[in-house]
Amino acid sequence: MSVLVNKDSKIIVQGFTGNEGTFHAEQMIAYGTNIVGGVTPGKGGSVHLDRPVFNTVSDAVSGVSANTSIIFVPPAFAADAIMEAAEAGISIIICITEGIPTKDMIIVKEYLSDKQCTLVGPNCPGVITPEEAKCGIMPGFVFKKGRIGVVSKSGTLTYEAADQVVKAGLGISTAIGIGGDPIIGTTTKEAVQLFMNDSETDGIIMIGEIGGQLEADAAKWIKENGTKPVVGFIAGQTAPEGRTMGHAGAIVGGSEDTAEAKMKIMEECGITVAHSPAEIGKLMFDRMNS
Amino acid sequence: MNLHEYQGKELLNSFGVRIQRGIVASTKKDAVEAAKKLNNETGTNWWVVKAQIHAGGRGKGGGVKLAKSLDEVESISNDILGMNLVTPQTSAEGKLVNQVLIAEDVYYPGESETSEFYISVLLNRSSGRNMIMYSTEGGMDIEAVAEETPHLIFHEEIDPKVGLTAFQCRKIAFNLKLTGKAFKEMTKFVYSLYTAYDKTDSALFEINPVLKTSDDLIMAVDSKVTLDGNSLFRHKDFISLRDTREEDPTEVEAGEYGLNFVKLDGNVGCMVNGAGLAMATMDIIKMAGGNPANFLDVGGTADAKRVEQAFRIILKDNKVKAILVNIFGGIVRCDRVAQGIVDAYNNIGEISVPLIVRLQGTNAIEAKKLIDESGLKVESVILLQEAADKVAEVLS
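^ Those are the sequences you sent over. The predicted structure of the assembly is below.
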């Protein structure tokens, strides 16, 4: 068992033949990920990176039994790509695209509400289950296999945390980058729930940032239902109010959005909070060995 | 992307939202002409002179004043134009006023009392839906209302399948205790307002106050409009509404180079790839006893040239006493970033502040070698904690 993606996932790339899609598909294939094909409207029937190209996601589902999709299409068309994947019966949809209009994501969220699928992202680094599947843009070599699950809004901060975990002598079961947009598919709480139910995960690292209520929601759930040690960090303790810090969702609007407020709730809910981003790995090690 | 009050009002009005009418002016002469024209068009004999800057609380800083004659329009405009307006939402230096809006007087006496409301349209991040937030307590700081009298703030969430419904518009007007003509006016106002928000792909509308006039008209007296920057590809005509004079010039320049930069007040500059790691790096600077001078995400395609530009931008701030470079290479190769640092040193000339470089991830070993062999006075570290310790050391 593992979370979201594994060696048996049948993965397609939407936006397969574009620059981004091609580059990252090559990287994922080199990692050993089971990429079974891709979708580029109008290029169906051709072959790209030794794999079949389809016109529609439906064709890819019937043609190569795809059950997972990773999306690299440009922001103007990304919401449509997510909905196409959901309609075709894809069960895990991972959207890397950054810059999708919020209005489009409101429609996507509504559209997905009665579909049997899980969306990760958008504006995220993707998901990696080490030695099985890299379904994202992260550097694979950082994520050594182990039993710690990581959920994070940020890309490079996830790599940083994974690196610290590995250097502390532990490893990663699965790392999920949920993305930094105001509207995203899988929330922090839902990712934590997946890890709590995963027999291959013994501890969880939860990395958030300023803005929104996702970390507080997850913390409250953990307090009631948590069965595994959780270490948390919130980036942006020094971020000024009212300014967007890179990620569209990373903005302090009210008092509940601040790093301080989130860290307080997390501590009250029994999460070990790293006050410095340099101590995430060490704190996880200490929790696992106490 | 933020708009000025006058731009926001024009946008709203184009969707049928009633507004306090006005004309924008950049000189006192234009201001008087605008006042005369407004008198012709609306019959107003008094005018409100309103500073146009991207910050709230303008009245508190002396940026909104009533003029009861053309002479007063001229003298007040003369005072406000060119002033550095300090409000609770600006820095201590304030913001330079380049334009004033000459607006009609809408608080004229009549059959009924005037009253003010608060209405905003925004995303409810928890539900992933838009909502209308409104209150009977108009013209006040809404955060204070939320704190002191939360029962006076109402919400109406919009179902994306059907949009704003007629019964929701009525509910809002009832909750605002309106009757008769004003009730009807309010339902129309709310509907037009939401239509404008929806059609323009906006991220935030805040109308404070919404006024009920003495003859029961409902209108927007102020407007705060924020457009969704990610939607501008669908609204090319909105791009010209951006007023870069309202932004930090260094931030504008950084944007032109594809750098995501936010100017801050501290003494340690930083250059990072990724927004989350950039915020974490700012945090670690603070913990090491410094204060971050900026947020800077060089992005996923940081190459030597971009790194050099980032250095130039950080070094424009003479408060910077040290620079911390923190790159976690994934797709970005650390050796390329290292080359950028070496190039920057050679091209910019004397960089007098200490530089702490932490390059981790793809090709980190090659990068460290490149830096070490360059002979530059650079503190090269591997771990994040070591970077923090070095920051503390150079500041002490």
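Chain B touches chain A through 53 residues (CB under 8 Å). Chain B has a mean pLDDT of 93.

Shout if you want it in another format.
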